[in-house]
Amino acid sequence: MTIEELVRYIELGKYPPVIYCEKKYEGICCMLKLVKNNTVFLDYDDTYDDSGSEGAFRATFKFDSFDKMIAAIEKFTHKSICELTINPYCYDLFDCIEPKWDDFKLDLYNGKIGMMDNYDDFFIGDFYWDGLFQKKIKPDASTDEILEWINLRQNSD
After folding, report:
1. If residue 90 lies in a helix (H) or strand (E), which one and from where to where?
2. Which of 35, 102, 116, 132 is 20–30 Å from 123 (CA)?
């Protein structure tokens, strides 16, 4: 892909373009999706297009320039932008009856999930995933413990 193609997809496309899709766990892929204002979504999901997906992981990275965003993408993917493809076909990577979310949760809690570098702002919008990332809740937390953490976060914002 060229920078010009990427800009066109970001600015004019109906949906955020996926520029990276790689299977990381059985039935779960890591994807990078780009949106306006130099923003990248880092998703771990068991569907390509969010259809039927509930509660997938999303980290949002905002960069203070387009060039910094591109550099961070290239570092994260270990590929140059011209080696990446807009909306790559990778539906077959998701083919799994029981995605391995427990493995992902454990790795997120233990800091083994790669994140992007040199961003201006970063957040995980879902309280549950953010709690695992910050080690405020454990991967094997009970429903009551998870709800307590979520209530604490909701009441503190």
Report:
1. none
2. 102
